Here is the input.
Amino acid sequence: MTSPLADIIRAEIREAGPMPVSRFMALALGHPKHGYYITRDPLGTDFTTSPEISQMFGELIGAWAADCWAKLGAPSPFALAELGPGRGTLMADALRATKAVPGFASAAQICLVETSPVLRRTQHETLRPVLEQGGYHRPRWLDSTATLPDMPLIVIANEFIDALPIRQFIATDDGWRERCVVEFQGNLVFTAAPAPLPDISILPEAAHTAPPGAIAEICPAGTAITADIARRLKARGGAALFIDYGYGRSQPGDTLQAMHEGAYVPVLEAPGTADITAHVDFEALAASAAPAAAIHGPATQGQFLLALGIAQRAAMLAQHATPGQAKAIEAALSRLTHADAMGTLFKVMAVTSHGLTPAGL
Ligand code: SAH
Here is the structure.
């Protein structure tokens, strides 16, 4: 199997030499013409996220945001930002839950950080009714966090960091080398860069003593975003919530994965047609945000949602449901919180201005 983007990548490798994994991932997801997120809405076909499983997820996060806002002294205006909002479902459910909070709707400047034109359109459609009903201002769409307004800030990011390009390194007998992609007999394959990495201090400490063959990962785009947000939180006050699959502590290992139509596929097989992600290293994110801001968690998604009252919310919804709906609510609750589904692999971490203790963490 191949793809138009694979041809473009082969041409670039012929021209410029081995392509770092980070460049490969950035092209596969974000190439302006053939990038995976640029050309399609993958939610529900290639993968399903928590807000798409149940309205309870976005509702509880809305309540979490309103609680942070109250603890900040109800600033007006404030920026309510979501990074990578997908179909807009989480934000719509959150805004439905917060529309009764006095002053919240008129104070909120909604900012959606989204690069995909396809998903921007879907977000627009999903949000339109709730914005009108709730008396919210029209949202602004931003290309990156760099242009977030300079005001108190509440940020939500669900399954956003996992989509940012990672760099990979492989331990060899004579040191660490960047993991790259080259062409071999017409196929794209992994290889190690010709020269060893001059400075291994960029690698997680846990990887320094790993044996030859080990792989280590860093996510410079992710840590740059958390560092930038932490600086903004320090300057203007606020909170940011990061939810993603990954590790509480840095550890070596290859977590690059590709998904197409709900199944894992080889990462290099047909770039642009599969979702490529990596597990999130929450220890590295926390280190980039501290000491500008306070870190809370990470907790598991199960712990966090149960602490916010998801079981009670499910019971309440079930009271007014048909038996079929009640079964679906129970199934969603279990999928979001159970260890053998999304409850444990997914972690939740908040970064806040000092002195703010967010709910659930
Ligand atoms: N948060 C949503 C969607 C997760 S999928 C949910 O939980 O359902 C990842 C989202 O991040 C998509 O909306 C994708 O278009 C967006 N995205 C990926 N890379 C991005 C980048 N570099 N900048 C902004 N948005 C990005």
